[in-house]
Amino acid sequence: MPLKYHLVLRPDLSKNAVVGKKLVHGQVRSIRTIELDHVCDLISDSSTASRGDVKNILSGLTQIMIRHMGFGDVFRFGELGSFRMIAGCKGAQSVEEFNTSLFKKGRVIFTPGPMLKRVAANVKFERCEFAKKQTRNKKEGKGD
To answer: Buried b / exposed e across 21-43, counting CB within 10 Å, b at 16+?
Structure first.
């Protein structure tokens, strides 16, 4: 199934671009969100595990990852990929001036495995027109 995209105008940021010039870009859009409960249903439908069993396992996995990633452990999930924690850091003038407050907020990094890399390498695209979201007047509940 192809990724859906729509066209948008964005400023031309190339080196010698004319001021105010815009280029047409394709912007990929997510169509839907698959929630955890639905994932549990899909897994239980294709296995002998119940929906509750799947949810308990995924919840337990999340708790283990939270606990261990805080120690710098890397989680490798075979074909799926791996998760690890990183944090940027500001520099100090000397070893004596360095302290842990120079670290920025930690981030979780996901690195796709071979299976997801193949999916990404073979992706197809399909142009779609998306309806613009209507804004609502919160007091009156009417569209603008």
So the answer is: eeeeeeeeeeeeeeeeeeebeeb
Structure confidence by residue, pLDDT tens digits, 75-134:
999 999 999 999 999 999 999 999 999 999 999 999 999 999 999 999 999 998 766 654
Bridge partners of 87, per DSSP, are 106
CA pair distance 58, 79, nearest whole angstrom: 17
From CA 135, how far away is CA 144, in angstroms rounded?
A: 6
Q: For residue 72, give the nearest of 112, 113, 103 by alpha carbon.
A: 103
Give SS3 for 122. Answer: coil
Q: Encoding tokens for residue 88? A: 């940027």
Span 84-100, pLDDT tens digits: 999 999 999 999 999 99
Strands 75-76 and 81-89: antiparallel
